[in-house]
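Hey, can you fold this one?
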Amino acid sequence: MPQYDKADLERRMQGAVTSYKGDLAGLRTGRANVTLLDPVTVEVYGAMMPLNQVATVSAPEPRMLSVQVWDKSNVTPVEKAIGSAGLGLNPISDGQLIRLPIPDLTEERRKELAKLASSYAEKARIAIRNVRRDGMDMIKADEKEIGEDEAKRFSAEVQKLTDDHITQVDEASAAKEKEILTQ
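Sure. Predicted structure:
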């Protein structure tokens, strides 16, 4: 029975692109964006939880995020988690509301963020190429069953999928670097 499954390969490649776009959303570009706090996890109730499961994050102003903590006893752990997340944000507590002013980005920090975006892009490209390699291995394993012509056609399909998804990563990367460097 042939192993090659184009839909599965496409799903896995699209997963790498989606994951990459999620990583990009977490990069700070000088504007307040609620996805900036997505990677933050908070230790509450004896477990690590994503910030969005213990508080509501909103962007009331272009350069301000606010975090409305649902349980008053979690305010301090949330503050600590945000402060230690390496996002360059200083939480200001006001009861159950935590304000996060978004500071201007320095030129040096912009370049660091652009490099980080590039490294995320490279990881996504590697993930896509790994899926491509898996697909090519499946086609090779199936070659006796499906024939040489069919194997070549499937290989071309896999390569086209790979190229399309890498193009999506490159476009997202270029847009994010432009956004980071031109503010």
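The chain has a mean pLDDT of 83. Let me know if you want another pass with a different chain boundary.
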